[in-house]
Design a protein that fits this description.
two-stranded antiparallel sheet; globular; Growth Hormone, Chain: A; mainly alpha; 15 helices; 498 residues
Amino acid sequence: MSQPNDVTTERTILGHPSGLFVLFFAELWERFCYYGMRALLAFYVVAQFNKPQAEASVSYGAFTALVYALGVFGGYIADKVLGYRRSILLGGAIMAIGEFMIMLPSEQMFLYGLATIVVGNGLFKPNISTLVGRLYKQGDPRRDSGFTIFYMGINLGAFLAPIFCARISRWMAADPAVPEYRWGFMLAGIGMLLGLVVFGLGSKSLQGKGEPPPERKGLGSVLGVALGCVICVPPIYWLLSQKQLVGYVLLALGAVIMGYLFFFALKSETVTRQRMFALLLLLLCNVVFWASFEQAGNSLNFFAQNHIEHLSIGTWTMVPEDFQSVNAIGIVLLGPVFAWLWVKLASANANPSIPAKFGLGLVQVGLGFGLLLWGIGTANETGQIPWSWLMGLYLIHTMGELCISPVGLSMVTKLAPQHMVGMVMGAWFVSIANANYAAGLFSQIAGAAAEGTEQLTGSAALGGYVAAFTPIVWMSIAVGGILLIASRLINKLMHGVT
Protein backbone atom coordinates (compact mmCIF):
# COMPACT_ATOMS: atom_id res chain seq x y z
CA MET A 1 0.00 0.00 0.00
CA SER A 2 1.30 3.40 -0.88
CA GLN A 3 1.09 5.71 2.11
CA PRO A 4 1.82 9.39 2.53
CA ASN A 5 4.92 9.68 4.62
CA ASP A 6 6.20 13.22 4.46
CA VAL A 7 7.46 14.14 7.90
CA THR A 8 7.91 17.79 6.91
CA THR A 9 4.12 18.42 6.90
CA GLU A 10 3.12 16.23 9.83
CA ARG A 11 1.77 17.55 13.11
CA THR A 12 4.05 16.51 15.97
CA ILE A 13 3.80 16.14 19.74
CA LEU A 14 7.05 15.97 21.69
CA GLY A 15 8.85 15.62 18.37
CA HIS A 16 6.84 12.59 17.25
CA PRO A 17 3.86 12.28 14.84
CA SER A 18 0.63 13.09 16.70
CA GLY A 19 -0.79 9.76 15.51
CA LEU A 20 1.68 8.00 17.79
CA PHE A 21 -0.21 9.24 20.83
CA VAL A 22 -3.57 8.13 19.45
CA LEU A 23 -2.08 4.66 19.03
CA PHE A 24 -0.49 4.98 22.50
CA PHE A 25 -3.87 5.47 24.22
CA ALA A 26 -5.76 2.98 22.03
CA GLU A 27 -3.17 0.32 22.83
CA LEU A 28 -3.19 1.31 26.51
CA TRP A 29 -6.89 0.40 26.77
CA GLU A 30 -6.57 -2.72 24.63
CA ARG A 31 -3.76 -3.94 26.90
CA PHE A 32 -5.89 -3.04 29.94
CA CYS A 33 -8.46 -5.41 28.47
CA TYR A 34 -5.98 -8.20 27.78
CA TYR A 35 -3.85 -8.01 30.93
CA GLY A 36 -6.87 -7.61 33.19
CA MET A 37 -8.29 -10.85 31.83
CA ARG A 38 -4.85 -12.51 31.79
CA ALA A 39 -4.22 -11.82 35.49
CA LEU A 40 -7.45 -13.61 36.45
CA LEU A 41 -7.69 -16.35 33.83
CA ALA A 42 -5.77 -19.25 35.42
CA PHE A 43 -7.28 -18.52 38.85
CA TYR A 44 -10.75 -18.46 37.30
CA VAL A 45 -10.32 -21.85 35.59
CA VAL A 46 -9.33 -23.41 38.93
CA ALA A 47 -12.04 -21.69 40.98
CA GLN A 48 -15.00 -21.74 38.57
CA PHE A 49 -14.50 -25.11 36.85
CA ASN A 50 -12.67 -26.98 39.63
CA LYS A 51 -9.65 -27.78 37.46
CA PRO A 52 -6.22 -28.67 38.92
CA GLN A 53 -3.42 -26.13 38.58
CA ALA A 54 -1.56 -28.24 36.00
CA GLU A 55 -4.60 -28.36 33.70
CA ALA A 56 -5.30 -24.66 34.19
CA SER A 57 -1.68 -23.95 33.22
CA VAL A 58 -2.03 -25.76 29.90
CA SER A 59 -5.36 -24.05 29.23
CA TYR A 60 -3.79 -20.68 29.90
CA GLY A 61 -0.82 -21.50 27.65
CA ALA A 62 -3.08 -22.71 24.82
CA PHE A 63 -5.24 -19.57 24.95
CA THR A 64 -2.38 -17.07 25.11
CA ALA A 65 -0.58 -18.97 22.35
CA LEU A 66 -3.57 -18.78 20.01
CA VAL A 67 -4.02 -15.08 20.84
CA TYR A 68 -0.62 -14.40 19.30
CA ALA A 69 -0.76 -17.06 16.58
CA LEU A 70 -3.62 -15.48 14.70
CA GLY A 71 -1.55 -12.32 14.31
CA VAL A 72 -0.01 -13.68 11.11
CA PHE A 73 -3.44 -13.88 9.49
CA GLY A 74 -4.46 -10.49 10.85
CA GLY A 75 -1.32 -8.99 9.37
CA TYR A 76 -2.01 -10.54 5.98
CA ILE A 77 -5.65 -9.37 6.01
CA ALA A 78 -4.55 -5.84 6.83
CA ASP A 79 -1.88 -5.87 4.11
CA LYS A 80 -4.15 -7.20 1.37
CA VAL A 81 -7.77 -6.45 2.29
CA LEU A 82 -8.81 -4.19 5.16
CA GLY A 83 -5.86 -1.92 5.81
CA TYR A 84 -4.52 -1.43 9.32
CA ARG A 85 -7.07 1.10 10.59
CA ARG A 86 -10.20 -0.93 9.80
CA SER A 87 -8.53 -4.17 11.00
CA ILE A 88 -7.86 -2.52 14.36
CA LEU A 89 -11.44 -1.29 14.71
CA LEU A 90 -13.01 -4.63 13.77
CA GLY A 91 -10.60 -6.64 15.91
CA GLY A 92 -11.20 -4.46 18.96
CA ALA A 93 -14.97 -4.76 18.66
CA ILE A 94 -14.73 -8.57 18.43
CA MET A 95 -12.44 -8.68 21.49
CA ALA A 96 -14.91 -6.65 23.55
CA ILE A 97 -17.70 -9.10 22.66
CA GLY A 98 -15.49 -11.99 23.78
CA GLU A 99 -14.71 -10.36 27.13
CA PHE A 100 -18.41 -10.04 27.93
CA MET A 101 -19.03 -13.64 26.83
CA ILE A 102 -16.51 -15.10 29.30
CA MET A 103 -18.49 -13.52 32.16
CA LEU A 104 -21.10 -16.26 31.69
CA PRO A 105 -20.66 -19.19 34.14
CA SER A 106 -20.93 -21.98 31.54
CA GLU A 107 -17.61 -23.60 30.59
CA GLN A 108 -18.82 -23.90 26.99
CA MET A 109 -19.60 -20.16 26.78
CA PHE A 110 -16.31 -19.42 28.50
CA LEU A 111 -14.42 -21.28 25.77
CA TYR A 112 -16.48 -19.61 23.03
CA GLY A 113 -15.65 -16.26 24.62
CA LEU A 114 -11.94 -17.08 24.65
CA ALA A 115 -12.16 -18.15 21.00
CA THR A 116 -13.81 -14.82 20.13
CA ILE A 117 -11.03 -12.91 21.92
CA VAL A 118 -8.43 -14.93 19.99
CA VAL A 119 -10.00 -13.94 16.66
CA GLY A 120 -10.31 -10.27 17.58
CA ASN A 121 -6.79 -10.03 18.92
CA GLY A 122 -5.45 -11.55 15.72
CA LEU A 123 -6.82 -8.56 13.81
CA PHE A 124 -5.89 -5.93 16.39
CA LYS A 125 -2.50 -6.70 17.91
CA PRO A 126 -0.05 -7.03 14.98
CA ASN A 127 -1.64 -4.20 13.03
CA ILE A 128 -1.49 -1.48 15.63
CA SER A 129 2.22 -2.24 16.09
CA THR A 130 2.76 -2.13 12.33
CA LEU A 131 0.88 1.16 12.11
CA VAL A 132 3.35 2.71 14.55
CA GLY A 133 6.15 1.84 12.13
CA ARG A 134 4.19 3.36 9.24
CA LEU A 135 4.28 6.75 10.96
CA TYR A 136 8.04 6.99 10.32
CA LYS A 137 10.10 7.01 7.14
CA GLN A 138 12.70 4.30 6.67
CA GLY A 139 15.83 5.35 8.53
CA ASP A 140 14.02 7.94 10.68
CA PRO A 141 16.10 8.18 13.90
CA ARG A 142 12.93 8.74 15.93
CA ARG A 143 11.60 5.25 15.18
CA ASP A 144 13.17 3.36 18.11
CA SER A 145 12.21 6.13 20.52
CA GLY A 146 8.66 6.10 19.11
CA PHE A 147 8.33 2.38 19.65
CA THR A 148 9.60 2.79 23.23
CA ILE A 149 6.93 5.46 23.89
CA PHE A 150 4.31 3.14 22.36
CA TYR A 151 5.61 0.32 24.54
CA MET A 152 5.10 2.51 27.60
CA GLY A 153 1.42 2.78 26.63
CA ILE A 154 1.19 -1.01 26.49
CA ASN A 155 2.64 -1.26 29.95
CA LEU A 156 0.65 1.54 31.51
CA GLY A 157 -2.48 -0.43 30.58
CA ALA A 158 -0.86 -3.63 31.81
CA PHE A 159 -0.02 -1.94 35.14
CA LEU A 160 -3.52 -0.63 35.83
CA ALA A 161 -5.45 -3.72 34.69
CA PRO A 162 -4.47 -6.37 37.30
CA ILE A 163 -4.90 -3.89 40.16
CA PHE A 164 -8.40 -2.75 39.19
CA CYS A 165 -9.70 -6.03 37.75
CA ALA A 166 -8.50 -8.02 40.78
CA ARG A 167 -10.03 -5.57 43.23
CA ILE A 168 -13.41 -5.23 41.54
CA SER A 169 -13.52 -9.05 41.60
CA ARG A 170 -13.20 -8.85 45.40
CA TRP A 171 -15.38 -5.78 45.94
CA MET A 172 -18.30 -7.38 44.07
CA ALA A 173 -17.97 -10.74 45.85
CA ALA A 174 -20.06 -11.72 48.87
CA ASP A 175 -16.80 -12.92 50.47
CA PRO A 176 -13.65 -11.01 49.38
CA ALA A 177 -11.65 -14.18 50.02
CA VAL A 178 -13.61 -15.82 47.17
CA PRO A 179 -13.36 -13.35 44.25
CA GLU A 180 -16.07 -13.05 41.59
CA TYR A 181 -13.70 -12.96 38.63
CA ARG A 182 -16.45 -12.29 36.09
CA TRP A 183 -16.65 -8.68 37.28
CA GLY A 184 -12.98 -8.30 36.45
CA PHE A 185 -13.70 -9.61 32.96
CA MET A 186 -16.51 -7.05 32.61
CA LEU A 187 -14.14 -4.21 33.52
CA ALA A 188 -11.62 -5.52 30.98
CA GLY A 189 -14.30 -5.45 28.27
CA ILE A 190 -15.18 -1.84 29.13
CA GLY A 191 -11.49 -0.99 28.75
CA MET A 192 -11.53 -2.36 25.21
CA LEU A 193 -14.55 -0.24 24.33
CA LEU A 194 -12.70 2.86 25.58
CA GLY A 195 -9.77 1.96 23.35
CA LEU A 196 -12.06 1.80 20.32
CA VAL A 197 -13.48 5.24 21.13
CA VAL A 198 -10.00 6.75 21.40
CA PHE A 199 -8.86 5.18 18.14
CA GLY A 200 -12.00 6.11 16.23
CA LEU A 201 -11.94 9.75 17.35
CA GLY A 202 -8.22 10.12 16.68
CA SER A 203 -7.98 8.35 13.31
CA LYS A 204 -7.57 11.63 11.39
CA SER A 205 -4.19 12.18 13.04
CA LEU A 206 -2.89 9.09 11.17
CA GLN A 207 -2.95 11.24 7.98
CA GLY A 208 -4.26 8.44 5.78
CA LYS A 209 -1.72 5.84 6.85
CA GLY A 210 -3.12 2.37 7.33
CA GLU A 211 -5.91 2.64 4.75
CA PRO A 212 -6.80 -0.34 2.50
CA PRO A 213 -5.82 -0.67 -1.17
CA PRO A 214 -8.11 1.49 -3.37
CA GLU A 215 -9.96 -1.53 -4.76
CA ARG A 216 -10.77 -2.75 -1.21
CA LYS A 217 -12.30 0.40 0.29
CA GLY A 218 -15.92 -0.74 0.02
CA LEU A 219 -18.05 -2.04 2.88
CA GLY A 220 -18.08 -5.49 1.28
CA SER A 221 -14.48 -6.12 2.40
CA VAL A 222 -15.37 -5.39 6.02
CA LEU A 223 -18.45 -7.63 5.91
CA GLY A 224 -16.50 -10.43 4.27
CA VAL A 225 -13.76 -10.35 6.92
CA ALA A 226 -16.35 -10.13 9.72
CA LEU A 227 -18.10 -13.23 8.35
CA GLY A 228 -14.75 -15.01 8.17
CA CYS A 229 -14.12 -14.15 11.82
CA VAL A 230 -17.45 -15.68 12.83
CA ILE A 231 -16.60 -18.85 10.89
CA CYS A 232 -13.20 -19.06 12.65
CA VAL A 233 -14.65 -19.07 16.18
CA PRO A 234 -15.95 -22.73 16.28
CA PRO A 235 -12.66 -24.37 15.19
CA ILE A 236 -10.73 -22.25 17.71
CA TYR A 237 -13.25 -23.24 20.38
CA TRP A 238 -12.56 -26.87 19.46
CA LEU A 239 -8.80 -26.34 19.74
CA LEU A 240 -9.20 -24.75 23.16
CA SER A 241 -11.31 -27.70 24.28
CA GLN A 242 -8.63 -30.10 22.92
CA LYS A 243 -5.76 -27.94 24.19
CA GLN A 244 -3.02 -30.55 23.78
CA LEU A 245 -3.47 -30.26 19.99
CA VAL A 246 -2.65 -26.54 20.08
CA GLY A 247 1.05 -27.29 20.40
CA TYR A 248 1.06 -29.40 17.22
CA VAL A 249 -0.91 -26.75 15.32
CA LEU A 250 1.48 -24.02 16.43
CA LEU A 251 4.54 -26.05 15.51
CA ALA A 252 3.08 -26.65 12.06
CA LEU A 253 2.13 -22.99 11.64
CA GLY A 254 5.56 -21.85 12.77
CA ALA A 255 7.27 -24.28 10.41
CA VAL A 256 5.16 -23.11 7.44
CA ILE A 257 5.80 -19.43 8.12
CA MET A 258 9.50 -19.85 8.81
CA GLY A 259 9.80 -22.03 5.71
CA TYR A 260 7.99 -19.47 3.57
CA LEU A 261 10.21 -16.63 4.83
CA PHE A 262 13.33 -18.78 4.40
CA PHE A 263 12.57 -19.60 0.76
CA PHE A 264 11.56 -15.98 0.13
CA ALA A 265 15.00 -15.01 1.45
CA LEU A 266 16.75 -17.52 -0.82
CA LYS A 267 15.13 -15.91 -3.89
CA SER A 268 15.97 -12.36 -2.80
CA GLU A 269 18.99 -10.21 -3.56
CA THR A 270 21.95 -10.40 -1.17
CA VAL A 271 21.10 -7.65 1.33
CA THR A 272 17.45 -8.72 1.71
CA ARG A 273 18.45 -12.37 1.95
CA GLN A 274 20.98 -11.81 4.72
CA ARG A 275 18.67 -9.49 6.63
CA MET A 276 15.94 -12.12 6.50
CA PHE A 277 18.34 -14.81 7.76
CA ALA A 278 19.24 -12.58 10.72
CA LEU A 279 15.55 -11.95 11.37
CA LEU A 280 14.71 -15.67 11.34
CA LEU A 281 17.51 -16.42 13.82
CA LEU A 282 16.29 -13.72 16.20
CA LEU A 283 12.72 -15.00 15.89
CA LEU A 284 13.92 -18.37 17.24
CA CYS A 285 15.70 -16.65 20.13
CA ASN A 286 12.51 -14.71 20.76
CA VAL A 287 10.74 -18.02 21.49
CA VAL A 288 13.24 -18.83 24.24
CA PHE A 289 12.86 -15.42 25.87
CA TRP A 290 9.07 -15.40 25.96
CA ALA A 291 8.75 -19.05 27.01
CA SER A 292 10.68 -18.01 30.11
CA PHE A 293 9.14 -14.59 30.60
CA GLU A 294 5.52 -15.70 30.17
CA GLN A 295 5.55 -17.70 33.38
CA ALA A 296 4.28 -14.40 34.79
CA GLY A 297 0.56 -14.99 34.28
CA ASN A 298 0.76 -18.69 34.99
CA SER A 299 3.23 -20.49 37.30
CA LEU A 300 4.46 -17.25 38.88
CA ASN A 301 0.85 -16.19 39.46
CA PHE A 302 0.14 -19.44 41.33
CA PHE A 303 3.46 -19.07 43.14
CA ALA A 304 2.39 -15.61 44.34
CA GLN A 305 -0.94 -17.04 45.50
CA ASN A 306 0.49 -19.99 47.42
CA HIS A 307 4.05 -19.24 48.48
CA ILE A 308 4.50 -15.50 49.02
CA GLU A 309 4.21 -13.62 52.31
CA HIS A 310 2.23 -10.64 51.04
CA LEU A 311 3.04 -7.08 51.95
CA SER A 312 0.54 -5.21 54.13
CA ILE A 313 0.59 -1.47 54.83
CA GLY A 314 -2.19 -0.29 57.15
CA THR A 315 -5.49 -1.50 55.72
CA TRP A 316 -3.96 -2.22 52.30
CA THR A 317 -2.79 -5.75 51.55
CA MET A 318 -1.14 -6.89 48.34
CA VAL A 319 -3.11 -9.57 46.48
CA PRO A 320 -1.45 -12.15 44.18
CA GLU A 321 -2.57 -10.38 40.99
CA ASP A 322 -0.72 -7.21 42.05
CA PHE A 323 2.57 -8.84 41.10
CA GLN A 324 1.34 -8.78 37.50
CA SER A 325 1.67 -4.98 37.66
CA VAL A 326 5.29 -4.90 38.84
CA ASN A 327 6.79 -5.57 35.43
CA ALA A 328 4.47 -3.08 33.78
CA ILE A 329 5.19 -0.16 36.11
CA GLY A 330 8.87 -1.00 35.79
CA ILE A 331 8.56 -0.56 32.01
CA VAL A 332 6.75 2.77 32.47
CA LEU A 333 9.43 4.08 34.82
CA LEU A 334 12.48 2.58 33.13
CA GLY A 335 11.28 2.88 29.52
CA PRO A 336 12.34 6.55 29.19
CA VAL A 337 15.65 5.72 30.85
CA PHE A 338 16.38 2.97 28.32
CA ALA A 339 15.20 5.16 25.43
CA TRP A 340 17.63 7.86 26.59
CA LEU A 341 20.36 5.27 27.14
CA TRP A 342 20.15 3.86 23.61
CA VAL A 343 20.34 7.36 22.10
CA LYS A 344 23.24 8.34 24.37
CA LEU A 345 25.17 5.17 23.57
CA ALA A 346 24.50 5.62 19.85
CA SER A 347 25.94 9.14 19.95
CA ALA A 348 29.10 7.66 21.46
CA ASN A 349 29.18 4.78 18.92
CA ALA A 350 28.71 2.36 21.83
CA ASN A 351 25.08 1.29 21.38
CA PRO A 352 24.79 -2.52 21.61
CA SER A 353 23.65 -4.12 18.37
CA ILE A 354 20.17 -5.66 18.13
CA PRO A 355 21.55 -9.22 18.53
CA ALA A 356 23.55 -8.11 21.58
CA LYS A 357 20.41 -6.59 23.13
CA PHE A 358 18.60 -9.89 22.55
CA GLY A 359 21.45 -11.69 24.30
CA LEU A 360 21.35 -9.31 27.26
CA GLY A 361 17.59 -9.79 27.60
CA LEU A 362 17.87 -13.57 27.61
CA VAL A 363 20.64 -13.58 30.21
CA GLN A 364 18.59 -11.33 32.49
CA VAL A 365 15.44 -13.45 32.30
CA GLY A 366 17.54 -16.44 33.34
CA LEU A 367 19.12 -14.50 36.21
CA GLY A 368 15.66 -13.50 37.45
CA PHE A 369 14.64 -17.13 37.84
CA GLY A 370 18.00 -17.86 39.44
CA LEU A 371 17.22 -15.22 42.06
CA LEU A 372 13.81 -16.77 42.77
CA LEU A 373 15.36 -20.25 43.13
CA TRP A 374 17.72 -18.75 45.70
CA GLY A 375 14.68 -17.37 47.51
CA ILE A 376 12.91 -20.74 47.38
CA GLY A 377 15.91 -22.16 49.24
CA THR A 378 15.06 -19.87 52.17
CA ALA A 379 11.37 -20.94 52.42
CA ASN A 380 9.90 -21.59 55.85
CA GLU A 381 8.13 -24.79 56.88
CA THR A 382 4.86 -23.62 55.31
CA GLY A 383 6.57 -23.00 51.96
CA GLN A 384 6.40 -19.19 52.20
CA ILE A 385 9.11 -16.73 51.17
CA PRO A 386 9.17 -12.91 51.49
CA TRP A 387 7.53 -10.92 48.69
CA SER A 388 10.84 -9.19 47.89
CA TRP A 389 12.23 -12.30 46.14
CA LEU A 390 9.45 -12.32 43.57
CA MET A 391 9.63 -8.54 43.26
CA GLY A 392 13.33 -8.87 42.46
CA LEU A 393 12.60 -11.39 39.71
CA TYR A 394 10.10 -9.05 38.06
CA LEU A 395 12.49 -6.09 38.17
CA ILE A 396 15.29 -8.10 36.52
CA HIS A 397 12.84 -9.40 33.92
CA THR A 398 11.72 -5.83 33.26
CA MET A 399 15.23 -4.79 32.30
CA GLY A 400 15.56 -7.87 30.12
CA GLU A 401 12.26 -7.10 28.40
CA LEU A 402 13.38 -3.54 27.65
CA CYS A 403 16.39 -4.98 25.83
CA ILE A 404 14.23 -7.15 23.57
CA SER A 405 10.60 -6.27 23.06
CA PRO A 406 10.51 -2.61 21.93
CA VAL A 407 13.75 -3.18 20.03
CA GLY A 408 12.28 -6.33 18.47
CA LEU A 409 9.11 -4.60 17.25
CA SER A 410 11.22 -1.87 15.66
CA MET A 411 13.60 -4.48 14.19
CA VAL A 412 10.78 -6.21 12.31
CA THR A 413 9.69 -2.98 10.61
CA LYS A 414 13.30 -2.24 9.60
CA LEU A 415 14.53 -5.68 8.46
CA ALA A 416 11.41 -6.84 6.61
CA PRO A 417 10.75 -5.72 3.01
CA GLN A 418 8.10 -3.00 3.11
CA HIS A 419 5.49 -5.04 1.24
CA MET A 420 5.82 -7.85 3.83
CA VAL A 421 5.95 -5.88 7.07
CA GLY A 422 2.45 -6.94 8.18
CA MET A 423 3.11 -10.61 7.57
CA VAL A 424 6.55 -10.56 9.19
CA MET A 425 5.10 -8.74 12.19
CA GLY A 426 2.62 -11.61 12.32
CA ALA A 427 5.54 -14.06 12.25
CA TRP A 428 7.00 -12.20 15.23
CA PHE A 429 3.78 -12.84 17.14
CA VAL A 430 3.68 -16.49 16.02
CA SER A 431 7.09 -16.91 17.64
CA ILE A 432 5.57 -15.49 20.82
CA ALA A 433 2.61 -17.87 20.37
CA ASN A 434 4.88 -20.90 20.36
CA ALA A 435 6.66 -19.43 23.37
CA ASN A 436 3.37 -19.05 25.26
CA TYR A 437 2.43 -22.66 24.66
CA ALA A 438 5.90 -23.76 25.80
CA ALA A 439 5.44 -21.54 28.85
CA GLY A 440 2.24 -23.43 29.65
CA LEU A 441 4.15 -26.72 29.53
CA PHE A 442 6.81 -25.39 31.92
CA SER A 443 4.01 -24.21 34.21
CA GLN A 444 2.42 -27.64 34.01
CA ILE A 445 5.62 -29.05 35.50
CA ALA A 446 5.21 -26.67 38.43
CA GLY A 447 1.55 -27.62 38.77
CA ALA A 448 2.45 -31.31 38.60
CA ALA A 449 3.68 -31.11 42.20
CA ALA A 450 0.34 -32.80 42.72
CA GLU A 451 -0.97 -36.30 43.13
CA GLY A 452 -4.11 -37.06 41.17
CA THR A 453 -6.15 -33.85 41.36
CA GLU A 454 -5.04 -32.80 44.86
CA GLN A 455 -2.32 -30.21 45.01
CA LEU A 456 0.43 -30.55 47.56
CA THR A 457 0.73 -27.65 49.98
CA GLY A 458 3.48 -25.93 51.92
CA SER A 459 7.13 -26.62 51.20
CA ALA A 460 6.25 -29.96 49.52
CA ALA A 461 4.76 -28.07 46.56
CA LEU A 462 7.96 -26.09 45.95
CA GLY A 463 9.66 -29.04 44.25
CA GLY A 464 7.50 -28.57 41.15
CA TYR A 465 8.56 -24.93 40.85
CA VAL A 466 12.24 -25.86 41.23
CA ALA A 467 11.81 -28.52 38.51
CA ALA A 468 10.18 -25.96 36.18
CA PHE A 469 12.44 -22.98 36.84
CA THR A 470 15.88 -24.67 36.87
CA PRO A 471 15.92 -25.57 33.13
CA ILE A 472 14.64 -22.07 32.34
CA VAL A 473 17.68 -20.57 34.08
CA TRP A 474 20.20 -22.62 32.12
CA MET A 475 18.38 -22.43 28.78
CA SER A 476 18.00 -18.64 28.87
CA ILE A 477 21.53 -17.90 30.01
CA ALA A 478 23.05 -20.35 27.49
CA VAL A 479 21.15 -18.99 24.48
CA GLY A 480 21.77 -15.40 25.60
CA GLY A 481 25.48 -16.05 26.02
CA ILE A 482 25.76 -17.60 22.55
CA LEU A 483 23.97 -14.59 21.05
CA LEU A 484 26.34 -12.18 22.78
CA ILE A 485 29.35 -14.06 21.45
CA ALA A 486 27.92 -14.23 17.89
CA SER A 487 26.37 -10.74 17.90
CA ARG A 488 29.01 -9.16 15.62
CA LEU A 489 28.57 -11.84 12.98
CA ILE A 490 24.77 -11.59 13.09
CA ASN A 491 24.96 -7.81 13.01
CA LYS A 492 26.92 -7.97 9.74
CA LEU A 493 24.01 -9.85 8.17
CA MET A 494 21.75 -6.91 9.02
CA HIS A 495 23.65 -4.49 6.77
CA GLY A 496 23.49 -1.35 8.86
CA VAL A 497 20.10 -1.90 10.55
CA THR A 498 20.56 -0.88 14.19
